[in-house]
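Figure S4 source data
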Amino acid sequence: MDGGLGTLFAAEGSKLHVIGEVDFTLNIGGLLIFHNFYVISNLSESLIFGTDWLTQNKVVIDYANKQVSIGDDLVRAPLFAQNTQYVRLVKPLCLPGYSEQIVLVSCNRIFSNQDVAIEHLPGLQFKKFAVARSIGAVKHGTTVCRILNTAPHALVLPKNTKVAVISNINVKRDCCLVKTAPLLPENQSRIF
């Protein structure tokens, strides 16, 4: 932190503005852990554990078994939240081999009128199909995502098939505009 209740920095270097502090007791699998947390403005995540907390509480992250061990293995907890939110196909999809399509998907209405990130289902990318990571907006419980059929034969998915994971995103904080070069007429080329 740069002193006082000013600013913290995220892992990628963006500024996080501290607006207060709160003493809080976490109950993780029955283990009560007291900690002083900073309150950050415009944070899309509910809670971020810093390296100080992870070290102090002897946290071991086991990606292979998708578990977190806390306090010298006093408690084990799932690595990923159990309340993962999914997007599902609004209608059946028949996608020819080696093709892609932008499809309408439904999601929990808690995401309505919010910006969201769409990502592939953990462990399933390229198994039956691939999903492009994207940022979008949800209107009335629906948004769109791009699905790619990586196989030579047609892919048929029934209505309500889970196709991706959805999460809130703070576009102003987490994204930046990338300027692209202007298009050239067809008869000209650009040398880099």
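Figure S5 source data
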Amino acid sequence: MNLTKIFDKSKIISVEDDQINIVKKGRSDAITAIIKKKNGKMFLKALECNIINHTRRINKIKTMCDIYHNVNVSSMKVIEASIINKKSHYILYDFIEGRNLAGLFPKLSNQELFNIGVKVGKTEKRLENHHVTIDLDDFGKVHENMITDATKWSKKFYELYFSNEMHYRKIFEKMPRTIQMSDIKTLELMMFNLSIFFDKKDLEVIHGDLNFGNIMLNENYDVTLIDLDLSSYSYFVMSHKFIRRAIYFQDPIKQEKYRYFYSGLIHGRYDEIPPELNRQILYIIVRSFFWGLTKYRKKKNDEELIKHVADFFEMFDSINIFKEELSTDLLSRITKKIY
């Protein structure tokens, strides 16, 4: 497929003579389109980024798609992929009919969300025992050592903080309650202390970004997982940074719906909940906080940064994280009175 002038702010200029039904630019700076051909529809994703090796990225995604299909996990199939130029590439997938969970979420009952969560958990469980036979470098960043992972996010934050100290202080001063650097350091230490609760024997193939937009459902609520760009060989919780919404969310009705989904997810994924899961969930939540501190400052998006810090500290205070720290019980908040 010849793609000409594919990047023009937010739209694709032309894709040969194929009919483009929908064109949009996603939050990840990817340009996506649903392309209609005589023999059916396809999904196009084109990405412009500073990846050194686009071929390796394409091959990694192809490999992940093959792994998913080998263990009977429904996902997208790669039809065609190619490098456009030094800064961009595209992948053409088969089109998945249905709706994503993000769109259906408001209309679904708590019980329906629980049942869907169980299906997603069982789907992930199929990937648990898959033995990776290729070079792990093909999976991109592998989170084997979570102490290294914690160090990375700590370092990224401090690099930004010390070059923008007054800016961060002004952000912290705008919070509903006073935030001191001592609070940030407490969270940093907690992240390091939590990083030891990961064992390499629990490494598995994961999706990497299992938000509701990447869970497709047909009319029978059968699950298909899409967008495998961040799939890797890592730990279960690394796919589920939004599990925090089941623990605390500003809208209590929505929080209850999230609780039902994630309770089902854990129920489907584990026959017996491992004792370290509570601390692993706490790790991904604290890690997500540091991720946002760096992401929104790099993008110079103060509005999102202020909201990010305020939302997280409201959640931290609601679960007494600064008092209970590593003993904070999150699983009971997710699974209470559901099963």
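The chain has twelve helices and twelve strands. The chain has two domains: 3-94, 99-335.
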